[in-house]
Amino acid sequence: MTPKTSPPDVRILGIETSCDDTGAAVVENGTRILSNILISQGELHAQYGGVFPEMASRSHVETIEPAIRRAMEESHLSVEELDAVAVTRGPGLAGSLVVGVNAAKGLSLAAGLPILGIHHLESHIYSLWLSQEESPERFPALCLIVSGGHTDLYVMSGHGQYRRLGGTLDDAAGEAFDKVARLLGLPYPGGPAIEAAARSGNPEFVRFPRALLDDSWNFSFSGVKTAVLREVRRRQPNLAAGINPPEPGLPVENLAASFQAAVVDVLTKKTVRAAREFQAGEILVAGGVSANQALREALQRDAPCPVRMPPLELCTDNAAMVAAAGYFRFQSGQRDTLDLDVVPDWDLAED
Ligand code: KG4
Ligand code: ZN
User: Fold this and answer.
1) Domain 141-309: CATH class, spelled out
2) 145 sits in which H/E element
3) Per-residue pLDDT band at 286 (split at 50, 70, 90)
4) Which one of 139, 190, 246, 294 has the fewest beta carbons within 10 angstroms of its own beta carbon?
């Protein structure tokens, strides 16, 4: 009897520079993280209350090479042992994406490695394949991608197959968290700060509006953001909210909890309704806001099918998820060329 041979391991270097974090990671077979380096610029942008695009790209230029070097060192592999390099091609900030794509091209050329351009939202989805005992393959899956730049619902019918149901018409949910945090005098990024403040607040303190937009799968978060602004101004009429920090006495915890409750309510209701309507085998939630505990609990409580969320450290942007998505693209035969260009406004379902 001939012994069974398992297919050779596939090791992919992922590179992520779509926004303000420089990431490089090595992942084996799309699931096993061998290294995952993230050099965050959070502090740099905190003073502006958001990402400053030119500073982000300049900072990537300084950190991309050390990030890749450390990712290779920690993986204990040499570049010759890699099978491909996968890089975020879009959507994202053009000046930031270019830094990652150019680094990937350099490596591809120098080491003769295939290069693969990856969609940022697809890589968020594939964060759900990382470090899991069992892969999420109960298609069709209903995907909620909820981050600083996106709030989108997709039906995923198989690997690389997406149909977009809808998305935000104005602010992304994470963006609303960031803007409301600023109104309340909380630091950037606003999501974790609001979540922390909300823990000691009353979610029913103010009933902020919920835009359910029942006749579509779209979202809108600008109304709830404006409602928080109005509430802050009503309580502190002298305050040019959003510019000056609020005065002492503002019930920050209660307002944070009430805002979070409104956003979680909308995200949960629409996701659950879409999962029912499209008979999803599973709900996949990914992106920075999926780190939110209140959202996790509400979805787990109300969903008609299993819900998967990435480990907390893989919710926000990272390169391991790029390498994971790259693995599935590699296996399906995708190979890009050195002409690969960035696509700052790339639609996932278009691909
Ligand atoms: O996915 P991500 O790292 O970057 C984008 O692709 O946008 O998401 C960042 C966003 C920020 O808006 C941040 O405030 C939000 O995710 N976020 C959270 C939490 N952690 C990060 N929002 C709510 N609750 C959290 N715990
Ligand atoms: Zn992201």
Assistant:
1) alpha beta
2) strand 141-146
3) very high
4) 139
Q: Which of 316, 321, 348 to mutate to test the pocket of ligand 1 (most atoms within 8 A of CB)?
A: 316
For residues 170 and 244, what is the distance between their CA atoms, to the nearest angstrom? 24
Question: Looking at the predicted structure, is the pLDDT value of residue 86 above 60?
Answer: yes
Q: What share of the chain is helix, strand, coil (3-state, %, to 5)?
A: 45, 20, 40
Whether the pLDDT of residue 263 is over 60: the answer is yes
For residue 188, the ligand 1 atom closest to its alpha carbon is 14
Specify whether the CB–CB gap between 173 and 286 falls below 8 A.
no
- Cα separation, 126 vs 137, in Å, equals 11
Please report, for the chain, the start and end positions of each structural domain, with discontinuous segments joined by +: 11-131+315-350, 141-309
| Contact by Cβ (8 Å): 334, 82 | no
**249 Rama sector, left if φ>0, alpha if ψ -120 to 50, beta otherwise:** left
Instruction: Judge if 11-131+315-350 and 141-309 fold alike in CATH terms.
Output: yes
Ligand 1 close to Cβ of residue 14 (< 6 A): no
pLDDT of residue 40: 87
Output the CA angle 335-339-343, nearest 5 degrees: 90
Q: Is 137 exposed, middle or buried (0-12, 13-18, 19+ CB in 10 A)?
A: exposed
Task: Determine if ligand 1 sits within 6 Å of the CB of residue 149.
Answer: yes
The Cα angle at residue 320 between residues 141 and 331, in degrees rounded to 5: 65
Output the pLDDT for position 188.
Answer: 87
Q: 273 burial class (0-12, 13-18, 19+ CB within 10 angstroms)?
A: middle
Rounded to whole angstroms, the Cα distance separating 209 from 48 reads: 28
What's the sign of the alpha-carbon dihedral 248, 252, 253, 258?
positive
Angle at 154 between CA 30 and CA 19, to 5 degrees: 65
User: Yes or no: is domain 11-131+315-350 CATH 3.40.50.300?
Assistant: no
Does 288 sit in the ligand 1 pocket, CB within 6 Å? yes
332 CA distance to ligand 1 centroid (A)? Answer: 30
